[in-house]
Design goal:
This protein is an alpha+beta fold. Helix content is 22%, strand content 29%. Helix 7 packs across helix 8. The protein is rod-shaped. The protein starts with a strand and ends with a strand.
């Protein structure tokens, strides 16, 4: 490879055919107007005022000495250094030589100019993003100088690394918190309940989800903890489960004194119970408060058939009567055991 050759203009010393990765101390000494004093206390404390890929301006603010800004540019094998002191004439002045020494010996500065060092450093970061085989690492990663440190970051700020720590952070940010339906990490086992009750004053249907501890035999006990059906609805992707939680929410905040036709859609989703929750109704005769001792287990179901109507012609009138057959039980329509305005308690 041909050796670098020097040119200059009024403000810069320029080295053509200069590969930065091949620069040496001998090269700096051979092109300096005076011998750089590398033993000086603050010789290697040069700091960039501005630095970016292949360009920067540098100073050395310590020591109480005037240190003019030194500019450094590197492009297409051309290295240009400028300084306003004009001391070096056709050679590197003390300031240019000191800055070039610092860039050469300090990886945190050299990485901005030496593509071989930079690409080697980027490779360790690029592997975390699956970009280690990209032909132009500089197109995907940039160098950021801050607080006297250099960091390698993706140019696309939303680019996510693919490693264990990053995936765990991504999961924590995207996934919902652990479902309330999951059992707490403790020795106590918990069960989730669907509880039907009536309004204390107006006696219309109310539905609540509870979580309760259970004995080893599976019997529920106090205390009962109310669960939020709307929050649970956001944690599922099942359409049936979403409808179920919406139905529960509709009757959890039910202020209607009498049944409404619109409530039937919510009621069907609730009775379907796709989550498979144990269902209870509150017995106010045991206790006015909803507690483990005042809950009675019950099975919910939709009435499919069993309704019979009878019409009799008596003289000038028709008499209509009916009955409902549920399993081995027969109920007269005028004497049905209606519960909460919607259910037949069998």
């Amino acid at each position: 490879m041909a050796a670098p050759f020097l040119t200059y203009n009024q403000t810069e010393i320029i080295f053509e055919n200069c590969q930065f990765s091949h620069l040496t101390h001998a090269f700096i000494l051979a092109n300096s107007a005076a011998m750089p004093d590398t033993s000086a206390e603050r010789f290697f404390l040069v700091l960039p005022e501005m630095i970016e890929l292949n360009a920067g301006t540098f100073s050395n603010p310590g020591g109480g000495l005037v240190f003019p800004l030194v500019s450094v540019r590197y492009s297409k094998a051309t290295l240009a250094l400028g300084c306003s002191c004009n001391y070096g004439k056709h050679k590197l002045c003390d300031h240019q030589a000191q800055v070039l020494y610092n860039i050469l010996d300090r990886p945190d500065l050299r990485i901005f100019f030496d593509d071989r060092l930079r690409h080697k450093s980027i490779l360790t970061i690029a592997e975390q993003y699956g970009l280690e085989n990209e032909p132009n690492p500089d197109a995907h990663f940039e160098l950021i100088w801050a607080n006297r440190l250099v960091n390698i970051t993706p140019r696309i700020k939303t680019l996510q690394p693919v490693n264990k720590d990053a995936l765990q952070q991504l999961a924590a940010a995207l996934l919902p918190p652990a479902k309330l339906f999951s059992q707490p990490q403790s020795a106590t086992q918990f069960k989730n309940l669907l509880v039907l009750s009536e309004h204390k004053y107006y006696k219309h249907l109310q539905v609540t989800l509870y979580q309760a501890p259970v004995t080893p035999a599976g019997k529920i006990k106090n205390p009962l903890k109310i669960l939020d059906p709307q929050e649970l609805g956001w944690q599922t992707t099942s359409v049936d489960e979403m409808k179920f939680y919406t139905g529960v929410a509709a009757f959890a905040n039910n202020h209607n004194k009498t049944p409404l036709a619109a409530d039937l859609f919510a009621l069907r989703a609730l009775v379907k119970n796709p989550v498979g929750l144990a269902t209870f109704y509150h017995s106010a005769t045991i206790s006015e408060n909803i507690a483990a001792t005042s809950l009675v287990p019950v099975q919910l179901g939709l009435l499919q058939n069993g309704l019979e109507l009878h019409v009799y012609h008596k003289e000038n009138f028709y008499e209509i009567s009916g009955q409902l057959v549920m399993g081995d039980k027969v109920y007269q329509l005028n004497n049905l055991p209606i519960k909460y305005g919607y259910f037949i308690l069998s």
